[in-house]
């Protein structure tokens, strides 16, 4: 299909969308009663609900159903796939790596972003400092992975280094190091890439929350002799708690879906695979439909508590 045909299809889809909306408005415009408003609301809501059911709920239910079958999906094997996920040595390594990602990335990214936001708040070079730390967010994860793959590039100590990390080690008189090959530290070095990307996101959200703290609260605290770390602990942190929850949960969900970095930098080799990449490997490379869908279900079950907690916290804040 040529580029022109693709653009033509795009414009046709947009035109159809506006045509459907126009028809809905014209049909419901004359209905001024309460029932007419309900019809109009249903006309807009039902398509969205249908898309959610077809594009989200149905695939989720199907995946969970398939996770109880064998590799080809022909024979029912019960919980054997889940047993493999939690007992097989390779899968346990995947779970260990995923746990390290989910624990380290949200905590470290949020901590660095928060400290950075506090330090540059109302400084002379605040805009430039924010742009500098936020810049990695503008790069795709694949692009960031390629950049860091060059940073970690390894050559023998006797050779000229093109990787910054090993060039620094050699310059300081140390032997060069295989950053992406040596387990388990290679997983940590992969985690650094996502921290580098997500810190900018955390900084922007938390910086906006810090600026939203009422000046009256800050001035009252200063009159009471609160300053420095006490101001940060007793005024800043409680005031931005909702934003902290949002940042932590959002980065946690992003981390559970981490795929690009592992795929680009190591291909899941050298004991660096995580759940999202293991799903891809089992489904598309090993053609193990049952185990792949079991892994996908585990990811879903890990994400749900985070989402539920986030929703509950937001409802508590709205109820105040």
Write up what this structure looks like.
Helices cover about 75% and strands about 0% of the residues. The protein has about 325 residues and is mostly helical. It contains 14 helices and no strands. The chain starts with a helix and ends with a helix. Helix 3 (about 80-85) crosses helix 4. The longest helix is centred in the N-terminal third of the chain and has 33 residues, at about 35-65.
Task: Write the topology of this structure.
Layout: H1 3-29, H2 34-66, H3 80-87, H4 89-120, H5 126-134, H6 141-151, H7 164-171, H8 185-211, H9 215-223, H10 228-239, H11 241-256, H12 260-265, H13 275-285, H14 289-319
What general form does the structure show? globular
Given as residue ranges, the uncertain stretches (5+ residues, pLDDT < 50) are: none
Q: What's the total number of strands?
A: 0
Average pLDDT reading: 87
Please write the string of helix (H) and strand (E) elements.
HHHHHHHHHHHHHH
Q: Beta fraction of the residues? A: under 5%
Could you tell me the radius of gyration in angstroms? Answer: 25 Å
Distance between the termini: 55 Å
Structural class: mainly alpha
Helical residues, percent: over 70%
Q: Number of helix segments?
A: 14
What is the makeup of the main sheet? none
